[in-house]
Write a structure and sequence with these properties.
Chains A, B: InterPro entries: ATPase_NBD, ROK, ROK_cs. Chains A, B: Belongs to the ROK (NagC/XylR) family. Chains A, B: Pfam families: ROK. 2 copies of one chain form a homodimer. Chain A has 2 domains: 133 residues, ATPase, nucleotide binding domain (Nucleotidyltransferase, domain 5), CATH 3.30.420; 168 residues, ATPase, nucleotide binding domain (Nucleotidyltransferase, domain 5), CATH 3.30.420. Chain A has 10 helices and 13 strands. The first copy, chain A, has a 5-stranded mixed β-sheet with strand order 3-2-1-4-8. With 313 residues, chain A is α/β, with parallel strands linked by helices. The interface between A and B is large, with 45 and 45 residues.
Chain lengths: 313, 313
């Protein structure tokens, strides 16, 4: 039997057919075009899955489930997307609508949850059953896997790890609150801090690496400049690791997972990021080394994590 | 059948025999005397339970389980207390040792987890299956109940809600970290903030209510003085509610429970505490009123919560 996994993104709908060994046998994508009526988007999701089934010569009755990772506040139990800011969605019956195209069960969850599940089933946390994933992109998504299953919280809107406060009264967050983890450890947050530092220190190498145009700042530049011992950049990187370390320590004190995973462009820094983070949380987690301290690792599946995770819902 | 619940405290061992309707049929306590060898403490726990069984005329074979709520970092799976600072315990085989006195299964968990479970089974969250409890005492304990069961985390040392950071780089916490929730919303934290405010504002009513001796400050005085419109006290109470509200919003964004419970002396303030808190979290929780926002309530079972919870492990 096969399972289909769909990763619903703001730009593209990606889908794959996954076998029992967690291998993606066929995958493809179509543009999301978020401004369309949701029914059209969901029809394209169904067509894409059927297309992929055709490509591997499988029939629909060989499909045991279809899973979808959706952005926003997802109610897994009722199959509804309660709210998605990017999509302009409110109370969209995603599972029900998609179910009109299939006879097998449909499962939905938040996209970060799916990525976390994918990494636990087939990726960087494959040997474990308990992991936390932080997706460090424009925002910060959180996925929590407990005993091999997605932890949803009792009501929709749980596991929003990026929307816990890090700095009381700090930077405004996209969620309306101040000082959330997302405002500091997202790529957006890192870039903002690097821009400010470069602006204050005109002789910082970061200015040169931007070609003198701070709007060209990205998350790689402060790490590159820090490597060259640029002081302003080293301070930005140090702060970033401290912020992320404090946030991870909070999640460890709550969930005590086997492993903490990170994904997003900043993971290109690999050991330069995960090494100091693993060391940092050892110094701040509750009960210190008297309790279990997980390793911090980078996710390895990239886009496939969401597809494999959705297929495993 | 009956179940025994034991609440192991720094001063007293409290125990009760609980029936299937969650009623305590007999209860009693003996001094803990924490400095003794752990074997003696555990023998007293067993003797107390057998004594209580005798009082209700029941026999040991009518006991289906014995549960213990212990302070510290508890490994429920192995039945070990990994670490308890107050007791000077490290890797104590509590369940195994207690098991030498009984033929029925022994279960152990952290004391705050037991209090949370007790309130869900028979107290302030009786109609729900998903609740968070914060015990606001000398420290801050956290208990998380999901689907009617204690959430332990994957390894011992999870659900330490009091040891998540609230103010980055803030007050030193007992755990060695800075700015933890515990350092601000424990009774100790509230008293520290009230003392500082009274010291700065010599004309604050709080000084008078202390009899001019700031070492006599307690958690009730700032609330009493705020009621009389004392400005310094009103600021202390406002800050306290904001700190607690921010912490609760973090837990809601992670767990989305049906209800959030508070216990400890500060709960004597009842609606003056829970009213503003429920209102505050509505303004800061992720997705605002588009997602479920739980009510903040005071726990109602007092000391019985730990006994009933332990009996339900």
């Amino acid at each position: 039997m096969y399972r289909a996994g769909i990763d619903l993104g703001g730009t593209n709908i990606k889908a794959g057919i996954v076998d029992e060994d967690q291998k993606i046998l066929a995958e493809g994508s179509v543009p999301t075009m978020v401004k369309r009526p949701y029914q059209e988007i969901i029809k394209d999701m169904a067509d894409l899955v059927k297309d992929l089934l055709g490509k591997i010569g499988a029939e629909e009755r060989e499909l045991s489930s279809v899973g979808v990772g959706s952005p926003g506040t997802v109610d897994a139990e009722s199959g509804m997307v309660r709210y998605s800011n990017n999509f302009g969605w409110e109370n969209i019956p995603l599972a029900e609508e998609l179910g009109t195209y299939f006879t097998c069960p449909i499962h939905i969850s938040n996209d970060a949850n799916c990525a976390a599940l994918g990494e636990v089933k087939a990726g960087a946390a494959k040997e474990t059953k308990n992991a936390i994933l932080l997706t460090l992109g424009t925002g910060v998504g959180g996925g929590v896997i407990i005993d091999g299953k997605v932890f949803e919280g009792a009501h929709a809107g749980g596991a929003e790890l990026g929307h816990t406060s890090l700095i009381f009264g700090g930077e405004p967050c996209t969620c309306g609150r101040k000082g959330c983890v997302e405002a500091y450890v997202s790529a957006t947050g890192l870039i903002r801090q690097a821009r400010r530092a470069a602006e204050q220190k005109k002789d910082s190498l970061m200015n040169e690496l931007c070609g003198g145009d701070l709007s060209a700042m990205n998350g790689k530049i402060p790490f590159d400049a820090a490597e060259q011992k640029d002081e302003a950049a080293m301070a930005v990187v140090d702060d970033y690791i401290t912020y992320l370390g404090e946030a991870i320590a909070n999640y460890v004190n709550i969930f005590r997972p086997d492993v903490v995973l990170l994904s997003g462009g900043v993971c290109n820094q690999k050991e330069k990021l995960t090494g100091p983070l693993t060391a940092y949380i050892k110094t701040v987690c509750f009960a210190g080394e008297k309790a279990f301290i997980p390793e911090v690792r980078c996710a390895i599946l990239g886009n496939s994590a969401g597809i494999i995770g959705a297929a495993n819902l």
